Amino acid sequence: MSPQKVAVKVGGRQLTLSNLDKVLYPEAGFAKAEVIDYYSRVAPVLLPHLEGRPLTVKRYPNGVTGQSFFEKNAPEHTPDWIRRVTLPVPGSTKNRETIDFAVIEDLPSLVYYANLAALELHVPQWRVSADGEALPPDTLVFDLDPGPPVTIVECCRVALMLREVLRADGLTARPKTSGNKGMQLYADWDGREEPSAYAKRLAQVLEKAHREQVVSVMARKARPGKVFIDWSQNNPAKTTVAPYSLRARERPTVSTPLLWKEVEGCEHPEDLVFATHDVLARVEEHGDLFGQA
């Protein structure tokens, strides 16, 4: 085996890791070995949020400054012990009727994907059954996207408004950073109606009440200086970055679950920027802040 490859045993599975010293975050000097180490250590709190959810990854084989690509279809060389489900994909841009998605439910599968430089892990708001059938959505999500010059600070103000509207409807919101510019609110979904329609209606209610701060329409020209409440992530064909996933920024930032007191107290954008070491320390202190409400 070449010096660039290392054979390891993870959870009883034999894996070959490669190019461990390749730097994937040049500005931070953060190498693939550190990506694998992070995902291995955060796995106990990450895996429950991936379980049963068809995976879409964003891979950066030459690091965050190089070419990247989204990958839904599990590669042909994917080991047979990684769970896969075949699902219809109407309207596929690649004219495919079905896709073989990976479903990451154990540490060896997670490490396998980390070794592929799959930095970002994205999942839908629904799961599959034991026999691979798509189940109804079990999660509601609102993606809060700041239009410059506003920042995550303003997103926090909108998140607090949204929390109260959801609470009035008997839903408990859970906040997390996107790991990028904005943040997301999640709530367990009980199937009372079509989730996109419900989320759109709430976004429009807040827009009507707070026109100077909130916008609910997709048009980019409407977003500057406001927080866009993206309700469309509830479309079954869409995915959202998973809790505890890395993001492909200059530094290895993470989509990080938050305490509501952190949302309430946010005064500067940097207050809610968390890198891998921050997140591991937070998990040590709090456990999974994104555990079921």
TrEMBL record:
<dbReference type="InterPro" id="IPR033649">
    <property type="entry name" value="MtLigD_Pol-like"/>
</dbReference>
<dbReference type="Pfam" id="PF21686">
    <property type="entry name" value="LigD_Prim-Pol"/>
</dbReference>
<protein>
    <submittedName>
        <fullName>Non-homologous end-joining DNA ligase</fullName>
        <ecNumber>6.5.1.1</ecNumber>
    </submittedName>
</protein>
<dbReference type="InterPro" id="IPR014145">
    <property type="entry name" value="LigD_pol_dom"/>
</dbReference>
<dbReference type="GO" id="GO:0003910">
    <property type="term" value="F:DNA ligase (ATP) activity"/>
</dbReference>
<keyword id="KW-0436">Ligase</keyword>
<dbReference type="InterPro" id="IPR052171">
    <property type="entry name" value="NHEJ_LigD"/>
</dbReference>
<feature type="domain" description="DNA ligase D polymerase">
    <location>
        <begin position="32"/>
        <end position="290"/>
    </location>
</feature>
